Amino acid sequence: CSLFFDISPLTGGNVAFSTLEGRPSAYNFDNSPVLQDWVTATDIRVTLNRLNTFGDEVFNDPKVLKSYYYAISDFAVGGRCKCNGHSSECLKDDFGKLVCNCKHNTMGVDCDACQPFYNDRPWRRATADNPNECLPCNCHDKSSQCYFDPELYRATGHGGHCRNCIDNTDGPNCERCRDEFYRQGPNARCLSCDCSLVGSLSTQCDNYGRCSCKPGVMGDKCDRCQPGYHSLTEAGCRPCACNPAGSTAECSLDTGRCICKDNVEGFNCERCKPGFFNLEPSNPHGCTACFCFGHSSVCSKAEDYSVHRITASFDTGLDGWRAEQRDGGEVPLQWSPMSHDISVTSNNYLPVYYVAPGNFLGNQLMSYGQNLSFTFYMDRRDTRLSAEDLILEGAGLRVTVPLIAQGNQYPTETPQTYTFRLHEVSSYPWRPLLSSFEFQRLLHNLTGIKIRGTYSENTPGHLDDVALLTARPGPGSPALWVERCTCPTAYQGQFCEQCAPGYRRENPSLGPFSPCVPCMCNAHSDSCDPETGECYCRDYTAGPNCERCMDGYYGDSTYGSSVDCKPCPCPSGSSCAVGPRLKEVVCTSCPAGTTGKRCELCDDGYYGDPLGEEGPVRPCRVCQCSDNIDPNAVGNCNRQTGECLKCIYNTAGFYCDRCKEDFYGHALTPNPAEKCKPCNCSPYGTVNQQRSCNQVTGLCECLPHVIDRDCSQCEQGFYNILSGQGCQSCDCNSIGSTDGQCDIRSGQCECQPGIVGQRCDRCESYHFGFGLDGCKPCDCDHEGSRTPQCKEDGRCDCKEGFVGTHCDQCEENYFYNRTRPGCQECPTCYRLVKDKVNEQRQKLKDLEDLIANLGTSQDTVSDKAFEERLKEAEKTIMDLLRDAQNMQEVDNSLMDRLAEINNTLSIQWGRLQNIKDTVDITDDLASRSTNRVRDVEQMISNSRRELEKELSGSIATPDSSGDPNNMTLLAEEARKLAEMHQKEADSIEQTAKDANDTSTKAYDLLQKTLAGESEITNNINDLNRK
């Protein structure tokens, strides 16, 4: 407050009061809450404490004291609305009172409070730097009411505490569900937990609506028992007492009765159903069906078997594995000594399979329900799987499975182990689906295991570590899956695979799968062969069912008595029979060779006297007929003497040991085709027309010049066997016939061409030249010859004016006249031309003689002999050099002489080489000279032909009339032609002269060469002497 006092009373004076004057924080007003509170007034009170009485109070006179007074005549207050910085103006309310027009979510007369729902932080006065507006509460749209909570603000920095949250939410910000509610997401609705009051530990659940369950209870609401539990109560669920090997680990929720696997029974699934055994956890059906070859449904675990593995590791080779295509074609296998595996490749789209060897096959019944495993990989990941990647075959059955079945992986470049359970359960899944009995029957006679090795073209597949789990008798880890059957009366054996004594297979072809039925032995045996059913007979009975008496006994064994069969009254204990009418005992199996009711006679094919009726006793023996009788015939020999009576194969004799008359051969040979054959002698070629022959060789006696075994052919060069006197000689001309042979009936010889006559001894008409090639045709011209027949030299007899071998040319200076057939003599003027031509012909003949002498008068040089002598000289020189070298250690002085000799030899060798080159040049010159001479001869021949042509042209037929004309012109033309040919002849003569000179030079050069050769020979001889 502010005080005012003075000694003197103040009348009409002013009392002033300032709230900020002299205040320490007057210049920091916005940040001084104390000062802000100081200047704020809601009421103003003026207190008049006392008056100055100048001491009159001491006297305490009321009248005097009442005369003192003071008063306030005017009162003025200067100020503004207090809006705490949240408003810039004041407005009058309904009562005329000024109130602030609040901003920043504030309210109140002085904006001294936050509006409802804007309480997230404490209210603050606005400043020049910060408006300090009120912030809304964060209620997640679940409430529209809140208040400021200082504790919450200190804890979280947000003081807005929501009220009356909706949608079952709760919390300062309605950020969570109420107790016993949950939601699965931030914006999801809160749902009731609905936890079971019996099965849950609390009525509150988690954010997923799951309640906390009591022991053995499950479910989001804890409203049911867990698998393996039953009977929900306040204490939870009680555990099922199920056998884990035989149950699914679940039981009835109400009764606790366990849910068993397919082949298991019992309240707790503790035992196998009838017909099953070996309760084990790994078996999806719990127990394995009894196999027992189908004869029993009662079995148990065998105690004396141990686990065994059939393996193939390919450490040393293929281990007997092979590969084949789907169609069975063989495919080569590759073994890797580095990786110890096998591989196979297919060059087409057809898959190739690995085929297991015999140790994996056969009776693999003890692998039922066990695993077949192997390691497999490919060089390239390019897989085309199929339903037949693994194949099992056996007992006429076949099952397949894909490679990726039973949880196996796709094949890659990395080795992986593939495992397959050999069981028929559908989830594995072998196709076609078999029953348990059929699957075990397949394994009992397993004939094939095929593993697919290729899945694409040209990509190898690799196989390793093949293993088949099975069992075998003996100590070791127990194999509890092997059965031991309790067999019915008719069966025995561990698997009821055998028939019991007194029983046999009803169908032996089925083997151990066949039912066993009682033996049928007519009471003469207690047992029989279990496979064939043949009885082990006694009481002298026999037969598969003891249905007859054994050999040597007779009677009816079907009566079932021990005395049904009695001994036969026959020798050697042979068998007998009782006649149906007379009931007489007759021996049926007499000793070999005997017959009769009591075996008293020799049998057919035997001889002797077994009872001695005609003399001494002779046992019956087989008749010896050399195998030349029909064994099926009766009476082949005499039963007393043994003589053979019915020989066959054309044999005869006491023992059928020779061929009969008119037959020959080997009667004793075992081959019937090689025995006796008919002689078949020809009546025309044999002496006196005999038909018999030598019985061994079969040769018939032939007439002269008749041959062959049967005398049916003439000798070569003979004929006419039908004469009956032998064959006659063909007598063919050796020149005129082709081979000296003739027709075997007519005697006509086969002639050369143009030759005739039965003996081919003359030329055919109009032929000539009888010789080895036959006769040639005359071919005489019919117009120019006098007759078609020619002379012995083939020349025809020509008419006048005709010439030539065949008379087919006009004589020189004759011409052919078509009007008058024949050759007509030319006019006289043509004789001049003829004389000129004859002169040229003579010159040409002289030139030809000269050239002929030139080609034959020169000596020839033998290059081959010359070279051989050179080689001999070279060899001699080399031998001499080697001898000289061997003598080097003997005499050093000889070395100088040898060096001189060697030098001389080198010089002579060079000369020899020069001489050889000269000889080669000379040979070339001689060859060229010979060619030039040949060219000259050819030119002369051509000139001659041209002269003859010109001559022929000069005398050719002028026209059809045959009369000559223009004779002077023709004569002049002939003279010019003759002069031109004279020049050509001179030129030819000069060429021949040049050739002669060249040949002379070649001859001189050869003479020099020969002289040099002689000198070399002398030098070599001197060297040899040294």
UniProtKB/TrEMBL annotation:
<dbReference type="Pfam" id="PF00053">
    <property type="entry name" value="EGF_laminin"/>
</dbReference>
<feature type="domain" description="Laminin EGF-like">
    <location>
        <begin position="519"/>
        <end position="567"/>
    </location>
</feature>
<feature type="disulfide bond">
    <location>
        <begin position="260"/>
        <end position="269"/>
    </location>
</feature>
<comment type="subunit">
    <text>Laminin is a complex glycoprotein, consisting of three different polypeptide chains (alpha, beta, gamma), which are bound to each other by disulfide bonds into a cross-shaped molecule comprising one long and three short arms with globules at each end.</text>
</comment>
<feature type="disulfide bond">
    <location>
        <begin position="732"/>
        <end position="749"/>
    </location>
</feature>
<feature type="disulfide bond">
    <location>
        <begin position="730"/>
        <end position="742"/>
    </location>
</feature>
<keyword id="KW-0175">Coiled coil</keyword>
<feature type="disulfide bond">
    <location>
        <begin position="702"/>
        <end position="711"/>
    </location>
</feature>
<feature type="domain" description="Laminin EGF-like">
    <location>
        <begin position="679"/>
        <end position="729"/>
    </location>
</feature>
<keyword id="KW-0424">Laminin EGF-like domain</keyword>
<keyword id="KW-0130">Cell adhesion</keyword>
<dbReference type="InterPro" id="IPR050440">
    <property type="entry name" value="Laminin/Netrin_ECM"/>
</dbReference>
<feature type="domain" description="Laminin IV type A">
    <location>
        <begin position="316"/>
        <end position="484"/>
    </location>
</feature>
<keyword id="KW-0084">Basement membrane</keyword>
<feature type="disulfide bond">
    <location>
        <begin position="537"/>
        <end position="546"/>
    </location>
</feature>
<feature type="region of interest" description="Disordered">
    <location>
        <begin position="979"/>
        <end position="999"/>
    </location>
</feature>
<feature type="domain" description="Laminin EGF-like">
    <location>
        <begin position="730"/>
        <end position="777"/>
    </location>
</feature>
<feature type="disulfide bond">
    <location>
        <begin position="778"/>
        <end position="790"/>
    </location>
</feature>
<dbReference type="Pfam" id="PF00052">
    <property type="entry name" value="Laminin_B"/>
</dbReference>
<feature type="disulfide bond">
    <location>
        <begin position="193"/>
        <end position="205"/>
    </location>
</feature>
<feature type="domain" description="Laminin EGF-like">
    <location>
        <begin position="778"/>
        <end position="825"/>
    </location>
</feature>
<keyword id="KW-0272">Extracellular matrix</keyword>
<comment type="function">
    <text>Binding to cells via a high affinity receptor, laminin is thought to mediate the attachment, migration and organization of cells into tissues during embryonic development by interacting with other extracellular matrix components.</text>
</comment>
<protein>
    <submittedName>
        <fullName>Laminin subunit gamma 1</fullName>
    </submittedName>
</protein>
<dbReference type="GO" id="GO:0009888">
    <property type="term" value="P:tissue development"/>
</dbReference>
<dbReference type="InterPro" id="IPR056863">
    <property type="entry name" value="LMN_ATRN_NET-like_EGF"/>
</dbReference>
<feature type="compositionally biased region" description="Polar residues">
    <location>
        <begin position="954"/>
        <end position="966"/>
    </location>
</feature>
<dbReference type="InterPro" id="IPR000742">
    <property type="entry name" value="EGF"/>
</dbReference>
<keyword id="KW-0964">Secreted</keyword>
<dbReference type="InterPro" id="IPR008211">
    <property type="entry name" value="Laminin_N"/>
</dbReference>
<feature type="disulfide bond">
    <location>
        <begin position="798"/>
        <end position="807"/>
    </location>
</feature>
<dbReference type="GO" id="GO:0007155">
    <property type="term" value="P:cell adhesion"/>
</dbReference>
<feature type="domain" description="Laminin EGF-like">
    <location>
        <begin position="193"/>
        <end position="239"/>
    </location>
</feature>
<dbReference type="Pfam" id="PF00055">
    <property type="entry name" value="Laminin_N"/>
</dbReference>
<dbReference type="GO" id="GO:0007411">
    <property type="term" value="P:axon guidance"/>
</dbReference>
<keyword id="KW-0732">Signal</keyword>
<dbReference type="GO" id="GO:0005604">
    <property type="term" value="C:basement membrane"/>
</dbReference>
<feature type="domain" description="Laminin N-terminal">
    <location>
        <begin position="1"/>
        <end position="80"/>
    </location>
</feature>
<keyword id="KW-0677">Repeat</keyword>
<feature type="compositionally biased region" description="Basic and acidic residues">
    <location>
        <begin position="979"/>
        <end position="996"/>
    </location>
</feature>
<keyword id="KW-0325">Glycoprotein</keyword>
<dbReference type="GO" id="GO:0009887">
    <property type="term" value="P:animal organ morphogenesis"/>
</dbReference>
